[in-house]
Amino acid sequence: MEMPDPDARVISAKADIVRRLSAVVGKDALIHAPEELRAYECDALTAYRCPPLAVVLPSTTEEVSAVMAICHAARVPVVPRGAGTSLAGGSLPTADSVVIGVARMTEVLETSHDDRLIRVQTGRTNLSVTGAVEEDGFFYAPDPSSQLACAIAGNIAMNSGGAHCLKYGVTTNNLLGVTLVQMDGTVVELGGGHMDAAGLDLLGLVCGSEGQLGLVTEATLRILPKPEGARPVLIGFDSLEVAGACVADIIRAGVLPVAIEFMDRPCIRATDAFSGAGYPDCEALLIVEVEGAEAEIDQQLELICAIARRHDPVELRQSGSPEESARIWLGRKSAFGAMGQMADYICLDGTIPVSELPRVLRGTAELAESYGLKVANVFHAGDGNMHPLILYDANRPGDLAKAEDLGADILRLCVEAGGCLTGEHGVGIEKRDLMTAQFTGDDLEAQMRVKDVFDPDWLLNPAKVFPLAASASRRALAAE
Amino acid sequence: MIEPRSEDELAAMLRAGDGPLVPRGGDTRAAVAGRARLSTAGLTGITLYEPGALTLVARAGTPMAEIDRALADEGQRLAFEPPSMAAVLGRDGVSTIGGVVATNASGPRRMVAGACRDSLIGVRLVDGTGMIVSNGGRVMKNVTGYDLVKLMAGSRGMLGVLTEVSFKTLPCPETALTLRASGLSPERAVAAMSAALGTPFEVTGAAHDPALGATWLRLEGFEASVAARADRLAAALSGWGAWDRDADAELWPRLRDAADFVGGAGDLWRISVRPSRAAGVAARLPGRWRMDWGGGLIWAETPRGHDLRADLPGLEGHATLVRASPATHDRLGTLHPEPAPVGALTAGLKSRFDPRGLFRAAA
Questions:
Q1: How far does the CA of residue B93 sit from the closest CA of chain A (Å)?
Q2: Beta partners for residue A110, in sequence order
Q3: Interface contact B6, partner A, CB < 8 A
Q4: pLDDT tens sequence across A310-367
Q5: Which of A4, A202, A385, B167 has CA atoms 20 to 30 A from the CA of A322?
């Protein structure tokens, strides 16, 4: 992965920069010894590593602002970091950068049931937001699978999704306001306890901007009343096409399940062997979950089963108890663990129109065969968010590069089918150089203009999102 | 009036144009009518509709009536319940889907289903330099690059001319039912609506009209489920009195379109506020008002030319001037003033997307 050359001037000024930072945050919130910096050299995309110049772990918005003002004045790049769980390399440092981590900013600042919101510092983990309100019958809806570990800061930066977004939407649909610290230290409040913007929707623009427009230190999140219950049904098919058609029919029928999960045969076999979930050995498996009161669940599942029967399923298993529900979900929830035990893998997350599911699955299988690699598919079918897992052997020379090339080809296939490169993980460095497959030069130009406005010196989270060639002239100009 | 027939033609016109080129759909929503200099009436037609994928794509000038018809034929709708503003603003134009997006127009269901910007999944536009830009697409989960879709929703023609918009659609529910309580004070009405929205019964409308002494709650879904939820909701809210079924089928469309303010003599404002502050705001209003979004939205009528924002110092939210004379719009500003750092970002975006100032006075 090509990264810009670190600024030698910044690296030689390290002692001075560290001294100035320590005046603002104190020694215990500042890391600069080489051996300690190793802990911050990568995120969950571990194939790429680079220790930063220093790491700062502030406790307040004011500290973040002061740190960023110092970095801005000294022209030091800043890499914002949530919990470091990005699968796309969204918080990969550069050697001349200061990482600002929000891990110590975990306070709940306000909870209001009347306004159905919670305001938190963004270092708080996704699951612990729900933890703060669930006793009162509420929850925070976006549920990325890393929700135990991932921070709200990263969720906002990447506009994270989850299994239940077919009904509840992704982060941007559940975000009411943020406190944003700009690169020069300016603190901006966007949104709040009310709905919609007075003027331009800058909140919507900031969400999903991968930490390149500012660092979000506080967030107002929408909380929702917990549904009374939820229950899944498991449906097996002997053809990918038929499973895809069944998904479309369920959606058209007017039921809105909270989740429609899809697994193909390689994934079914691997997860069943790993978890003992008792899945049928078939071509495609759907797990459809609905919510509501008991009677409502019955009615919705009845409708879904009637639709499924028209497609001649090889298995149709309704859950009759919490134990059976857990068993149905068991394999799906251990899918990534099962794959990890079999091999190293790369997890993609291209999104496609639901109608293209069978074609893209077939195309993926053909591509995998041409590369001599195995691909297992497990994904959110209701919204077309694919998660092909490319299996490879990290110890075999050249295998990772081959797997990455296959991944790029699969993502190009998603774009060609009318979809996009990433549905919930973000571009980061991982898909940066594929952006030209989805966007024209003018499309990227429009996005980079936004970056020009928020961060004219291009210092925030460098080398992510945009192909280096596309941003080269701007970075050169900013460096003058 | 400039009326391009295609996106390419529009781009050429904008590259050559020297402004001001105030863009408009049917001119049914703009703060001031008759200022249009650029019409999207030549950019029409639904270009893709896949009910099984819940996706609809249309050119910006497509009349809303055509969109509504296509969706109704498949038993679907736009979740955010787009209002028609023509009657309350006294306009006779044809409302377009591009105008809905440009004003982020959203009805009573907005508080739970999201605004127009939440259902919008893709845009195409031509900016003030004549550059054609595509962002988002036709899939509902997409985090590829910056989200210019949100930026364009509600941008009121400031940054560029929308040429095509893509939406996530939703199935229409089998039925809807409204519960009505009478005689609640504003404070108690907001408390009742907040309590209702805090239940798991999926309330999709919550409005209060002090003039009629009515507080309404809406439930939607399958017939049996709605009936059961209505009974349980009424029981849960019995502390606020009796909740009777209101059979008025036109209630929510009327609330959506602010039909109760049609023909009013005064100016009309739309105030977005935290629900828990709504009753306090209402107490300071100088004229007739009504609440929607469980208190999160207040429609308020004021004497002509009155600066409502001056009555609401420190408002956590914003007040938009909806209906007033052109002179009042120009004097008070249609949109709530932004704090300086936010205003600086807005001005920066405006100067990048429209460096020649083609779209002056577009709001």
A1: 24
A2: A119
A3: no
A4: 999 999 999 989 999 999 998 888 888 888 888 899 999 999 998 898 899 999 999 9
A5: A385
Partner-chain contact B139 A384, CB within 8 Å: yes
Tens of pLDDT along A368-392? 999 999 999 988 888 899 999 999 9
Q: Domains of chain B by range and CATH?
A: 7-171 (3.30.465.10), 175-256 (3.30.70.100), 259-332 (3.30.70)
pLDDT at B134 over 70: yes
Count of alpha carbons within 13 angstroms of residue A83, beta-carbon side: 19
Task: Find the DSSP H helices in B120-185.
Answer: 148-152
Q: For the segment B11-20, what is each residue's pLDDT rounded down to a tens digit?
A: 999 999 887 8
pLDDT of residue B11: 97
Q: What is the largest CA-CA distance in chain B?
A: 65
Sequence ranges of the domains in chain A: 8-101, 108-225, 230-336, 343-433, 434-479
Residues from chain B contacting residue A295 (CB–CB below 8 Å): 224-225, 228
For chain A, positions 47-76, list CB contacts with chain B under 8 A: none
Q: Which of residues 178-197 of A touch B (CB under 8 A)?
A: 182, 186-190, 192-197
Type of residue at B93: G
Q: Which fold has domain A108-225?
A: 3.30.465
Classify domain A230-336 at the CATH class level: alpha beta
What is the CATH code of the structural domain delimited by A8-101? 3.30.43.10
For residue A171, what are the contacts with CB-CB under 8 A and spacing of at least 6? A142, A155, A156, A158, A159, A160, A161, A207, A208
Residue ranges of the alpha helices (H) in B56-104? Answer: 64-73, 86-89, 97-102
Tokens representing residue A331 in the block: 């394999």
Fold agreement between A8-101 and A108-225: no
ipTM above 0.90, yes or no: yes
Mean pLDDT over B198-216 rounds to 97
Residues from chain A contacting residue B114 (CB–CB below 8 Å): 169, 173
Task: Note the pLDDT of residue B212.
Answer: 97
Q: What's the whole-number mean pLDDT along residues B75-83?
A: 97
- A223 near A330, Cβ under 8 Å? no
Report which of residues A480 and A83 the model is more confident about: A83
Q: Helix, strand or coil for residue B177?
A: strand
Tell me the C-alpha distance between B120 and B106, whole Å. 12
- Asked if residue A142 lies in contact with residue A221, where contact means CB atoms within 8 angstroms, the answer is no
Does the domain at residues A343-433 carry the CATH identifier 3.40.50.300?
no
d(CA B12, CA A231): 55
User: What residue in B sits closest to A182 (Cα-Cα)?
Assistant: B341
pTM of the model: 0.97
Say yes or no for a CB contact (<8 Å) between A116 and B276: no
Contacts of B151 in chain A (CB under 8 A): 200-202, 204-205, 450
